[in-house]
Design brief:
The complex is a heterodimer.
Chain A lengths: L4 E12 L2 E13 L4 E5 L6 H9 L6 E6 L2 E2 L6 H6 E4 L3 H4 L6 H12 L7 H11 L16 H14 L4 E5 L7 H18 L2 E6 L2 H7 L2 E6 L2 E7 H6 L4 H8 L6 H12 L2
Parallel strand pairs in A: 3-8, 3-9, 6-7, 7-8
Antiparallel strand pairs in A: 1-2, 1-4, 4-5, 9-10
Chain B lengths: L3 E12 L2 E13 L4 E5 L6 H9 L8 E9 L2 E2 L5 H7 L4 E4 L3 H4 L6 H12 L5 H14 L5 H5 L8 H12 L6 E5 L7 H18 L2 E6 L2 H7 L2 E6 L2 E7 H6 L4 H9 L23 E2 L5
Helix pairs in contact in B: 4-5, 5-7, 7-8
The chains are: A alpha/beta, B alpha/beta.
């Protein structure tokens, strides 16, 4: 089966003043349909640049991106934008504060021409139910919702246009730990039910361990390791990955033992 | 005598819509040289507690504070605003979450360092301040203190700025350090180094620390004692080891269960609010 997303020798450099910053160097990566691929790295590793390239917000300096087997054009068409959607880190700033959450969801349906105008109120209600919120929340303003509820709305909006690939950029790092667990559950359930593919960008290895199917570790614009999640945590191949795992603050004895074992391999 | 002793602290804010209760009788103490963590989620009241200790909320109109806060045996509410101001930056100091926004972007590090040192030594000369700052930066493992002192905050990395902040916070050898989510804005490898450094330094100087965080892992590694706060109440407290190994309160248990583990095992789905979270406090070892 053709991978849903293929990155071929992808590179991106930014020119600032008189020097060039190489943000991403020679990334070749296939993302399979239905998987949750975590992109892990510290600040400056290039993970957000990668997200922006996939979303078509910036253009690659070198290489190309294939979506469902076809090269993505520099100027994306509506079907491309419909198929690849984004959920951002901070749901408070991702939603228009002046617009009810129902109107925000309705806008996505209108823009992408999903359903007939008469069906759309029902589709909005269905979207809210899908993300575990009462349909009556459609009339609420984002400010009347908690952080976790707002993130559910942002997820509903990303799914409104029947997207197939969702870029999740630190979707739970602004949330409290109990709410984070709920939102991660929701994301996992939706992926399985709808056959969605996720690019899950995060710096939190605990989250990665529990949600990702595969992990790509980025450092200074290069992909240093790509592995199945279980294998990455039990036998990390790259010294940088080991250093990353051994720096995670942990709470249980089992985690401490695992971390120290990996740290000792350095 | 404890460095910090908080007894039955209540806080409410007077708003147009009425009185909002934020703290419902917090009690905790930090002994000399002890590292105590106050751990809770957003809105639990952990940061306002630190602000009351610093004497910042007392000045805010609309804030109603009752209860007893004693710093080195001295009742803070009995002090004048001027006397409380004199304590800040000398006998007690604070480190904030984001080091880069805590430093003034339009001044180099050296004059900002001098300002800190002048809180304890008024009129300290630039030369004397530089010499002292060099020693202090050396303590936080900064290898080129001269270059750092001549830099603007934006020319330094986040980890470097955080180390500068730690050096400044400990410059006047405070008895109490308040650390509000230090390291949260940093990368995980830098965060680990920063916490190690901070732990060594406070141990060396016998500084007491009130450590505020939402990150259970960080608390587990840093604190001697842990107090879990939920909706303005301390629901569990005790030696860190006891709280983490045998959490007794339903809320603490929920927090621990929801923490994603690097050993895997999935995440349970837990309600974010539960009437059992309001159960009475679990105190390990008898003393709060």
């Amino acid at each position: 089966m053709t991978p849903i997303l293929q990155l071929r020798s992808l590179g991106k450099s930014f020119v600032t003043g008189n020097h060039t910053v190489q943000a991403l160097t020679n990334i070749t990566l296939d993302v399979a349909q239905g998987e949750c691929l975590a992109i892990v790295g510290e600040s400056g590793s290039g993970k957000s640049t990668l997200a922006n390239l996939v979303l078509g917000l910036i253009t690659p300096s070198t290489g190309e991106i294939l979506f469902e087997g076809a090269i993505l054009p520099v100027r994306r068409t509506l079907p491309h934008r419909q198929a690849i959607q984004l959920v951002q880190q901070n749901p408070a700033s991702a939603l228009n504060p002046r617009r009810s959450v129902g109107a925000s969801l309705r806008l996505a349906l209108d823009v992408h021409g999903i359903g007939t105008p008469r069906e759309r109120p029902d589709l909005v209600a269905q979207l809210l139910t899908d993300v575990g919120l009462p349909a009556a929340y459609a009339s609420r303003a984002p400010a009347a919702l908690s952080g976790g509820q707002r993130q559910r709305i942002a997820i509903a909006r990303a799914l409104a246009c029947q997207s197939r690939l969702v870029v999740l950029d630190e979707p739970t790092s602004a949330l409290d730990v109990l709410v984070q667990a709920q939102v991660l559950h929701l994301l996992d359930r939706l992926r399985r039910a709808r056959g969605l593919t996720y690019l899950f960008i995060t710096h939190d290895l605990g989250v990665v361990r529990n949600i990702a199917t595969r992990v790509a570790v980025f450092s200074k614009g290069r992909m240093v390791e790509l592995a199945e999640t279980g294998a990455l945590f039990t036998a990390p191949g790259d010294p940088y990955t080991r250093r990353l795992i051994s720096a995670v603050p942990v709470i249980t004895k089992e985690e401490k033992i695992m971390r120290n074992t990996l740290g000792g391999l350095q | 005598m404890s460095t910090l002793d908080i007894r039955n602290l209540h806080l409410s804010f007077k708003l147009h819509s009425g009185l909002v209760h934020v703290l419902h009788g917090i009690s905790l103490s930090v002994a000399k040289g002890e590292r105590v963590a106050l751990v809770g989620e957003s809105g639990s009241g952990k940061s306002v507690t630190a602000r009351i200790v610093l004497g910042l909320l007392q000045e805010l109109r609309g804030a109603r504070i009752t209860g007893h806060v004693a710093f080195q045996g001295q009742d803070l509410s009995a002090l004048s605003p001027r006397a409380r101001h004199a304590l800040r930056g000398t006998a007690m100091s604070m480190i904030f979450q984001d080091p880069t926004s805590s430093l003034n972007p339009v001044y180099r590090i050296a004059p900002q360092f001098r300002e800190v040192l002048a809180r304890a030594t008024p009129g300290i000369s630039m030369e004397a301040a530089r010499a002292r700052a060099t020693t202090l930066l050396d303590e936080v493992a900064i290898t080129e203190p001269a270059r750092v002192l001549d830099s603007y905050p934006f020319q330094l990395s986040g980890g470097m700025n955080q180390r500068v902040m730690i050096a400044m916070a400990l410059a006047n050898r405070p008895a109490l350090l308040l650390a509000d989510e230090p390291g949260t804005a940093l990368d995980v490898t830098v965060q680990a180094q920063t916490l190690d450094l901070m732990r060594d330094l406070v141990a060396q100087h016998g500084t007491s620390v009130l450590f505020i965080s939402h990150n259970l892992g960080v608390v587990r590694e840093f604190a001697d004692r842990t107090c879990v706060i939920y909706k303005g109440r301390i629901v569990e407290s005790g030696p860190t080891e006891a709280v983490f190994e045998a959490p007794g309160h339903p809320y603490t248990r929920a927090l621990m269960a929801a923490q994603p583990r690097i050993t895997g095992g999935g995440l349970p789905e837990i309600a974010e609010a539960d009437s059992r979270f309001l159960a009475s406090a679990v105190i390990h070892g008898g003393l709060a």
